[in-house]
Design brief:
With about 210 residues, this protein is of the alpha/beta class. Helices cover about 40% and strands about 25% of the residues. Strand 2, helix 6 and strand 3 form a beta-alpha-beta unit.
Length: about 210
Amino acid sequence: MKLCVFDFDSTLMDGETIDFLARPLGLEEKVAGITEKAMQGELDFFESLTNRVSLLKGLEQSKVDKICQNLPYMPGAKETISELKKLGYTVIVFSGGFRNATSYAKDILGFDADFSNILHQREGILTGLVGGDMMFDFSKGDMIVRIQNLLGVDRKDTLVVGDGANDRSMFEHADTRIAFCAKDILKKEANIIIDTKDLMEILKQI
């Protein structure tokens, strides 16, 4: 048994889900600025997430779903996941983003499970509140240890792939740590660095 955990935004998907969601509200630039600082490790992840989601208040749930079902996936995402599964990996996604995007992508890209956050809505309209599995800087590290214990996988058989500061906590628990088109703060924690936007490059490195 082997375990591979991918980040979603800017890793399996080319961009940040919350930035796409902010676009119809005319807030993409404001939200993207906060996102960038969070991924660089300059802001507390929980605070930055809740602040950004609060700006989405009033957005229709139907619009959220439509946007999340039309996100651009990273080149090679589906093919890489398929090959990893052939190599015996259980492939899981951890995302500080939202289940509207990750659960939809699961059936398209073929990973085994997703852990992400949920945008609270009332009567089909976002309230600006959020909750879920991946709310904090430490969330990915906390979850990967629980999954390793559940599957009976140790760190030498664990591969992680991410791009931002909130991926650091899961990097602590894997021997193969890939920084994919990543921020410098994560590259420091990686032992494989890929700067080409093609996830198939991973298969050449493992």
